[in-house]
Specification:
Chain lengths: 280, 173
C-alpha cells in the first residue's frame, strides 16, 4: 500500500510537469506557485474515493478503521441525532427537529404503503433504514473534504444485492414455487410466454446490478466532475467559470443526493411488491 | 492532455475497483446498517409512530370536545331564548292582571261616586221642591194680602173668602 502511494506521488509530479508544459504561456505564471504544492494543473478526480486507514499508513484489513468507517459512523450519528435525540421529547406539538424526523417517517411510510400495500408495512423499517442511510451518506459525501461512502460499488452492491436476495428469499418463503409466476405472464399469448419469461428472468437478475451501479455511478460521476472543475480553478483565466460551474454542479449534486436515495428506496419497494404479490 | 490524464487514472485504477478494500468497506457498512436498523426499529420508529398516533388521537378528541361544546352552547342558547320568552309572557300576564285590578277598582270607585251623586241629587231635588212649595205658599199669602189691599183701596170691603178663592183660582192657572 505504501509503495502504491509513492508511485502515485511520482506520477502526480510528472503529470504536473506535463500540464505546465502543455499550457505553455498561460500556465507559466501558474506553474510558479503551483510548483510547491506538487504540480500545477493536477487532475486527480478519483483520489477523493481512495480508502485510507484513519490512523497511520498501514494496510487496509477488513477490521481497520478507515475513512469509510468514519463517514459511515457520521451517517449513523446523523440518523441517531435526527430520529432519537430529535424525538426524545415525544412532544404532541413537535420541535423543529422532531417534525423533520416525522416528515421522513411519514414520507417513507406512505411510500411503502402506496407501493406495497398494507402488508408491505411489515418491512417498513428495512426500507426506512436503506432510505435514511443512503440519504445521509449522500449528503455527508457532499461536504467538502468528506468521503462519499455511497460512491463505492462495494457499499452499493451490498445494499443492492441485499435487497435482491432479501426479496427473492421472501418471495419464495411467502409464495412457495408460485413465486415463479412472476416470470410467467398469464395475460400474454401462450406462444409469447416463454420468450417473455426469459426476458423477465434476465431483467430480474440485472436488477441488483442496476440498483447498485445507478447509485454508485451517480455519486461518483458528480463528485469526479466537481473535482475536475476544481482542478481548472487553478488557472486564473478560467477560474471564475470553473467556480461557477462547481457551484452549479454542487446544486445539481444536492438534488441527485436526495433523488438517488429516493429512487433506491422506491425501487426497493417495487421489488418488495413483486415478492408480496408475484402474479401480474 | 485530458485523454492522457484519463489514461493515467485508468492505469492507476478507480479506487472503487480496488478489491483489497472491499472486505473493510463491507464489514463497516454491515455494522452501520445493523446499528441504524436497530436504532430505527427498536427506538425511533415506535416512538415516532406513537407520537403520531397520540397526536391524531388528541386532534380527534379535541375536535369531538369542540363539537360537544358547540352542542352545549346551542342548548344553552335555546334555554336562554325560552327563558326570555317565558319572562316576556309572564310580564305581559302581570301587566294584564294589574290593569284588570286597576280597572275593577276604578269601576267600583265610579259606581260609588255615581251612587253618592245620585243620593245628593235626590236630596237637592227634594230641597228644591220644598223651597218651591214654600215659595208658592208665600206667593199665595202675598197675593192674598196684595189682593185685599187692592180691593180695600178700591173702597170695597172685600170678602176674605172670595179673595182667597180668587187668588187660589189665579195661582192654578
Amino acid at each position: 500500500m505504501a509503495s502504491h502511494t509513492a508511485t502515485e506521488t511520482t506520477e502526480a509530479a510528472t503529470h504536473g510537469a506535463e500540464a505546465t508544459a502543455a499550457h505553455g504561456g498561460d500556465a507559466v505564471a501558474q506553474g510558479a506557485d503551483a510548483a510547491h504544492d506538487a504540480g500545477g494543473l493536477v487532475f486527480h478526480p478519483l483520489d477523493q474515493f481512495i480508502v485510507k486507514p484513519l490512523f497511520g499508513d498501514g494496510a487496509v484489513h477488513w477490521y481497520t478503521p478507515t475513512n469509510v468507517t468514519l463517514w459511515l459512523a457520521l451517517a449513523v450519528l446523523c440518523v441517531v441525532l435526527l430520529f432519537v435525540v430529535g424525538s426524545r421529547g415525544r412532544a404532541t406539538i413537535p420541535s423543529r427537529v422532531q417534525s423533520v424526523g416525522e416528515l421522513f417517517y411519514g414520507f417513507t411510510h406512505k411510500m411503502v404503503e402506496d407501493v406495497c400495500g398494507k402488508e408491505g408495512l411489515k418491512y417498513f423499517p428495512y426500507v426506512m433504514t436503506l432510505f435514511v442511510f443512503i440519504l445521509f451518506a449522500n449528503f455527508l459525501g457532499l461536504l467538502p473534504m468528506s468521503f462519499a461512502t455511497t460512491s463505492h460499488i462495494a457499499v452499493t452492491a451490498v445494499l443492492g444485492f441485499g435487497v435482491f436476495f432479501g426479496v427473492t428469499i421472501l418471495g419464495f418463503v411467502l409464495n412457495g414455487p408460485s413465486f415463479l409466476k412472476l416470470f410467467w405472464m398469464s395475460e400474454a399469448p401462450l406462444f409469447l410466454r416463454p420468450i417473455i419469461a426469459v426476458i423477465e428472468l434476465i431483467s430480474y437478475f440485472v436488477r441488483p446490478v442496476s440498483h447498485s451501479v445507478r447509485l454508485a455511478g451517480n455519486i461518483t460521476a458528480g463528485h469526479a466532475v466537481m473535482k475536475v472543475f476544481a482542478a481548472f480553478a487553478g488557472l486564473a483565466i478560467v477560474s471564475p467559470v470553473s467556480i461557477l460551474a462547481i457551484t452549479a454542479i454542487y446544486g445539481l449534486e444536492v438534488l441527485v443526493a436526495g433523488i438517488q436515495a429516493y429512487v433506491f428506496a422506491i425501487l426497493t419497494c417495487v421489488y418488495l411488491k413483486d415478492a408480496l404479490h408475484p402474479a401480474h | 492532455m485530458a485523454t492522457a490524464d484519463v489514461a493515467q487514472e485508468v492505469e492507476a485504477g478507480m479506487p472503487q475497483l480496488d478489491f483489497s478494500t472491499f472486505p473493510n468497506q463491507i464489514f463497516w457498512l454491515l455494522i452501520a446498517l445493523v446499528v441504524i436498523y436497530l436504532v430505527l426499529s427498536r427506538i425511533a420508529l415506535p416512538r415516532i409512530s406513537g407520537v403520531l398516533a397520540e397526536r391524531s388521537g388528541t386532534i380527534s378528541n379535541d375536535l369531538a370536545a369542540a363539537e360537544d361544546f358547540k352542542l352545549r352552547a346551542t342548548e344553552a342558547e335555546a334555554v336562554y331564548e325560552k327563558a326570555l320568552a317565558d319572562a316576556r309572557t309572564e310580564s305581559n300576564r302581570i301587566g294584564d292582571e294589574a290593569r284588570a285590578v286597576a280597572q275593577a277598582d276604578l269601576d267600583a270607585a265610579l259606581a260609588e261616586a255615581d251612587a253618592k251623586i245620585a243620593t245628593q241629587t235626590a236630596a237637592a231635588e227634594a230641597n228644591i221642591a220644598e223651597i218651591r212649595a214654600s215659595a208658592t205658599d208665600n206667593v199665595a199669602i202675598v197675593a192674598k194680602d196684595v189682593a185685599q189691599a187692592l180691593v180695600a183701596a178700591m173702597g170695597t170691603n172685600a170678602d176674605q173668602v172670595a179673595i182667597d178663592a180668587a187668588v187660589a183660582n189665579r195661582m192654578k192657572g
